[in-house]
Every structure is written in C-alpha cells, then in structure tokens.
Amino acid sequence: MTVSAPPLPEVFGNYAIKGIQEVLPSEPVSWWPATPGWWVLAAIALLLLARWGFRRWRRWQADRYRRDALAQLAALKGSPRQQLQATAIILKGTALAAFPRRDVARLSGSAWHRWLVERGANFSDSSRALLTEGQYRDRHEPDATAVARLVTESAAWVRQHEARQP
Question: Are the C-beta atoms of 69 and 161 separated by less than 8 Å?
C-alpha cells in the first residue's frame, strides 16, 4: 500500500513570488591578510612596536634614580635645617647617578651651584644662598619658606636635567 500526498491546488503558496529563485549568501570575507605583503607589513609593524617598547622600558629603567630622588624630596620631614641637609644630599646623589663621578664628587659651595645652573637648574637667590652656604654659615634655623622653595626648585631640576652617563 502506497501512500501519496493529497493533490495540491494549481495556485499554491504566494503567487507573487512564483518563479523567483532564492539568493544564497556568499561565503563571509576573511579578515586574515591574503597576500604576503600584508604579512611582511605586519611583521615590520610588530618589530617596530617591540623596539619602541624596549626603548621605553630602558628609558624607564634609566630614570629610576629620578623617581627615587623625587620620592625622597616629597617625603622630607623634620626641621628646616634637616630638610636643607637632606635636600643637599639628594641633589648630590642625583648628580652622581646622572653624571660622571669625576665631574661631580669634588664640587661644593659656589662651584656646586654653578655646575647645577650649567645643567639647567634655576635656583632663586635664597635657594642659592642656602645651597652654597646655608648648612655651614650659622646655627640659626633657616627660613622654612626658603627651604621649601629650594626643595621645589631641586625637584624641578631632578625632573628636567639631561643625564650624561660616563
């Protein structure tokens, strides 16, 4: 016994689309580069990015002494005399880290101030006096405002000087 489908009417379905064929979508376009030139360009771009990253990392490592000095200047506590002495030590340590020891270690007083100015320091007159003579001149407590100005100007020099490693 065979079962057959019932007879269909002559007009079946939507008569407005009779004879239209269905459009099949094409394969999706691949986002992967199809030609070797794009692969070469991607490799060059990756090499340049790696080089840039390595240089930035080396620069960040080389500037560690700056970050340390700025953190020490920001954390200064105590009397103005103690802050003055600590600032002088931090400035000398920063200079020794950034410049050849033979050029920095022997400097003191006005020669030290002149050397800093030649390398971009911009100290006010009160800061110059504190830096060159303030620690040695007298036993009176230095002006707290002048010491704060010296700390600010020292931090500016630490940020902006151009280091010359031996």
Answer: no
Helix, strand or coil for residue 162?
Answer: coil
In whole angstroms, what is the distance from residue 3 CA to residue 158 CA?
A: 97
**Domain-wise residue ranges, the chain:** 64-160
* Distance of alpha carbon 20 from alpha carbon 17, whole angstroms: 6
For residue 161 the two structure tokens come to 């000087």
Q: Is the CB of residue 133 less than 8 Å from the CB of residue 110?
A: no
Instruction: Give pLDDT tens digits for 79-129.
Output: 888 999 999 999 999 999 999 999 899 998 889 899 999 988 898 888 888
Nearest-angstrom CA–CA distance, 10 and 13? 10
Q: What does pTM read for this prediction? A: 0.71
Greatest alpha-carbon pair distance for the chain in Å reads 126
Burial of 103 (C-beta count, 10 Å sphere; 0-12/13-18/19+): middle
Distance CA 96, CA 101 (A): 6
- Whole-angstrom CA distances from 95 to 39, 75, 100, 104, 137 are 47, 19, 8, 7, 24
